[in-house]
Amino acid sequence: MRIYPIPEVVLGVESTAHTFSLGVVENGRVVGQVGKSYNPPPGRGIHPREAADHHAKYAPALFRQLLAEYRLSPRDFDAVAYSAGPGLGPALRVGAVFARALAIKLGIPLVPVHHGIAHIEITRYVTQFCDPLVVLISGGHTAVVSFSDGRYRIFGETLDVAIGNALDTFAREVGLGFPGVPAVEKCAERATSTVEFPMPIVGQDLSFAGLVSHAVQLARGGTPLPVVCKSLVETSYYMLAEVVERALAYTGKKELAVAGGVARSNRLKTVLSAVGREHGADVKFVTDEYAGDNGAMIALTGYYAYGRHATTPGESFVRQKWRLDEVEVDWFHRLCHTPR
Ligand code: AMP
Ligand code: MG
Known about the structure:
Elements: E1 9-14, E2 19-26, E3 29-37, H1 48-69, E4 79-85, H2 89-106, E5 110-114, H3 115-127, E6 133-137, E7 142-148, E8 151-157, H4 163-173, H5 180-188, E9 201-202, E10 205-206, H6 209-220, H7 225-251, E11 255-259, H8 266-278, E12 282-285, H9 295-309, H10 332-336
Parallel strand pairs: 1-4, 4-5, 6-11, 11-12
Antiparallel strand pairs: 1-2, 2-3, 6-7, 7-8, 9-10
Helix pairs in contact: 1-2, 3-9, 4-5, 4-6, 5-7, 6-7, 7-8
Magnesium ion (MG) binds at residues 115, 119, 138-140, 260, 293.
């Protein structure tokens, strides 16, 4: 077995869904990233095969762009981290094959990374929070998470679809386009009233799928679209706020961090800031550039995870379904004491 030195420069490869992105981290600092997203034709959801074709088509040019923009040579990389899941199988495999091919060519290790944990780590990095309660809200995740006993543990999650996915589906069904969350929020601004919606919360868990069907039915039945949008947005965000509130009370955490693509929502920023204030917690949101799927978060998490999780260059795996509480986060405490 080869012993690899601790990496200084890590390349990160992200390809779980719409976005193919490459990022670089040097000695624990993000250097930069490049990326390109696949947009399905209007009225259609993401097709895994088409997303994979998109990623395969643009990966080589993006790699050249990354090298040129950050004045790097392939020989500068000491390790390649890649998003191993959860995500769309065909899209994940493009990233894994790209990462593995590079690792073999350069003779450097591969580090598989959990995509959801990468969203959390980039958020800890930009907020400088040590031990926050994290609200992870993206196209694929809706979970309230905090570190305990060696892993990120889940203190509430969706039972069906993610909040971003729910709003994206509704937007698609009623012709508001993609990305759905900002489109539905914009439409909601024109409403002066709301209609009653169910609020399916089961213990600490949430269900969004039924809300979408209900909203589509109302819109098709003639309820003004802005009224449906506002009702859907407010109901979903308040459901999330309720679960976050209980998790803050239970865990007693004094930092609340919001991670993932939907963290860009201004309305949600207002709602979650109010929840944090009420519980005496400092609230911070991941910055827009690192909110959506990005290669920098994969490089960063690969850099942290390297010691325990690196594999030899020829081995790679993908896992379409992969819970984040299955991953041992042995690097967690190191970060709290390192100025970044
Ligand atoms: P991610 O899976 O982390 O890339 O996040 C994708 C989700 O972010 C999708 O559900 C989008 O609708 C949502 N999104 C994109 N832009 C925004 C925005 N400006 N505000 C809120 N959500 C957004
Ligand atoms: Mg994501």
